[in-house]
Amino acid sequence: MELRKILLPGLISVTLLSGCSWFSGEEDVVKMSPLPKVENQFTPEKVWSTSVGNGVGEFYSNLHPAWADNTVYAADRHGIVKALDAGDGSKKWEVDLAEKTGFFSKNRSALLSGGVTADGGHVYLGSERAQVYALNSSDGSVAWQTKAAGEVLSRPVVSDGLVLVHTSNGILQGLDQNSGGVKWSVNLDVPALSLRGESAPATAFGAAIVGGDNGRVSAVILNQGQIIWQQRISQPTGATEIDRLADVDMTPIVDNGVVYALAYNGNLSALDLRSGQILWKREIGSVKDMVVDAGRIYLVDQDDRVIALSTEGGVTIWRQSDLLHRILTSPALYNGYLVVGDSEGYLHWINTTDGRFVAQQEVDSSGFQTEPVVASDKLLIQAKGGEVYAFTR
């Protein structure tokens, strides 16, 4: 069976507007909401910004900065990886993972797409060329490099001596953290058509919890690589192939014995960690990661509404609808505010109590694709053009 991956939100911003065979009629055209007018209650301070290669451009990529031990690690699609001082953004080291092809030839791009993850003295990245890299965090030298089962589009996750990677053909692999050797592989199944992206697993109590393109959430025992339960949270329905997309591409969240997961064209579901039984569900769809904090769930739905819900039953607390179809990043919770970036390069700061805007700033005209990252007292975000920014509030 031929497997096809399509890109969202690029599908919405490009394919939909240009007229696609899946759609017909003017009613199918999605228009980006105009920039809302915000009276800033404060002005976030840009502490530093640093260029990391050429970024990702208009390609899909899950590359975003990682932070550990006062160092920020960031990469571009071509293969540039940099370690930056978290205080001032100065470069500590830089390596190029692009393949050397000869003295007079341009290096072959590494096509980095999954990462960056910093853990235990190493920096981990994955690529569209099905390569997983472990770099020594001290100098960027390659500790090991392993061929994965397919494209690595989500960030590697480190747990229990393993580096977990979820490939585009639906394989979850556990690699030995020290050597990169493949310890086990689990096939999570991929439908004929799915979104371009994969769920990074969450880990808890010796298990990996991961979403699949088939609309299921699976729990896998880490030391054996065996599935212990699976639960469907999205059932493919509808008249078009797009309507039937059921991917669970976000990273599930485990909190107090409950797994929270979200599917495209599916449901926000709360599952029992031990059994996978559905505790409650709400009809909300998305592919973006969400935040669970202090009894609340914060998420961006597939139409770019920002929503806060209660972890008790999924009751809506507030809904912010002034950013529709601005192609938002996943949200980050920073100093008591919810922060999202958009495709035009703006950061939007939202009051977690009532969902109202408290600040807005134009940062980078290339736009944002991946979520802000909290690094101690700073908020980091990487633009599609490659610039990494650090802010404080």
Q: What can you tell me about this protein's structure?
A:
It contains one helix and 34 strands. It has a four-stranded antiparallel sheet, with no helix packed on it. Strands 3-4-5-6 form a four-stranded antiparallel sheet, with no helix packed on it. Strands 7-8-9-10 form a four-stranded antiparallel sheet, with no helix packed on it. It is mainly beta. The longest helix is centred in the N-terminal third of the chain and has 9 residues, at 10-18. The model is unreliable at 10-26 (pLDDT under 50). Helices cover 2% and strands 43% of the residues.
Features:
single chain, 393 residues, 4-stranded antiparallel sheet, mainly beta, 2% helix
SSE topology sketch:
Elements: E1 4-6, H1 10-18, E2 45-51, E3 66-68, E4 71-75, E5 80-85, E6 91-96, E7 112-119, E8 122-127, E9 131-136, E10 142-147, E11 157-159, E12 162-166, E13 171-176, E14 182-187, E15 193-195, E16 202-204, E17 207-211, E18 216-221, E19 226-232, E20 253-255, E21 258-262, E22 268-272, E23 278-282, E24 291-293, E25 296-300, E26 306-310, E27 316-320, E28 332-334, E29 337-341, E30 346-351, E31 357-362, E32 373-375, E33 378-382, E34 387-392
Number of helices: 1
- The whole-angstrom Rg is 20 Å
Q: Output mean pLDDT.
A: 90
Helix content: under 10%
User: Mind summarizing the main beta sheet?
Assistant: 4 strands, antiparallel
Tally the beta strands: 34
In the sheet with the most strands, the strands line up as 2-34-33-32
Shape: globular
Oligomer: single chain
The parts where pLDDT drops under 50 for at least 5 residues are 10-26
Decide which structural class fits the backbone.
Answer: mainly beta
